[in-house]
Amino acid sequence: MLLTASRSVLLIIDVQERLMPAIHDGESVVARTALLGEAAAALDVPVAATEQYPQGLGPTVAALAGFPQLVMPKTAFSAVAEPGFDMLLPPGRDEVVVTGAEAHVCVLQTVLGLRERDVRVVLVADAVGSRRESDRQAALARAREHGAEVVTSEMVMFEWLRDSRHPRFRDVSKMLR
User: Fold this and answer.
1) Which value, to the nearest 10 degrees, does the dihedral of the CA atoms of residues 135, 138, 144, 150 take?
2) pLDDT less than 50: residues of the chain
3) 10 Å Cβ neighbour count for 103?
């Protein structure tokens, strides 16, 4: 089943200033997440973010800070377990597109928590990271085993568009150059 912009929400998990330098290929994770943020803004897809213990790990990285309409600080590894999590998911948005760090900890636990609620979860493989690539790969495999769909950022963007006649097609396709 293809994603739809009108039913999606982009959820950015813990892409924070003091964490991302330690993430394997962290610059690429930030860049692909920013690309999704730009596309989400162009296509009216809400964006939410979490920050794991921001006093210690700092805020969301500057490159992404302008995208989320809501940011929730947390201490639980699974954002779903944090009081107030439901405010991050707007009514009628039942497709959660997930990016972030660390893939095998906060991202995976959030994905599994959403799956326990029977939420459609789409995990963006090129926009998640861990300190070690082996941990990221294990997280992607486990998420898939539990019903999350594993995709790439471009798959998400083109599914949100659906058609080259979409009024924002040129804007979004320029983002990929």
Assistant:
1) 50
2) none
3) 32
What letter does residue 154 receive in the DSSP assignment?
H
- In DSSP terms, 70 is beta-bridged to 48
The pTM of this model reads: 0.98
Hey, CA dihedral for 10, 13, 15, 16, is it positive or negative? positive
The phi, psi pair for 16, rounded to 5°, reads -115, 155
**What is the rounded CA–CA span in Å between residue 177 and residue 161?**
17
**What pLDDT, on the 0 to 100 scale, is given for residue 95?**
98
Residue 124: left if φ>0, alpha if ψ -120 to 50, beta else—which one? beta
Cα–Cα distance measured from residue 175 to residue 36, given in angstroms and rounded to the nearest whole number: 9
List of residues 6+ apart from 97 with CB closer than 8 A: 3, 8, 9, 10, 11, 36, 45, 122, 124, 156
The confidence score (pLDDT) of residue 177 equals: 87
Q: Mapping DSSP to helix (H, G, I), strand (E, B) and coil, where does residue 134 land?
A: helix
CB 154 within 8 A of CB 160: no
Q: Could you give the CA distance from residue 107 to residue 51 in angstroms, rounded to a whole number?
A: 12
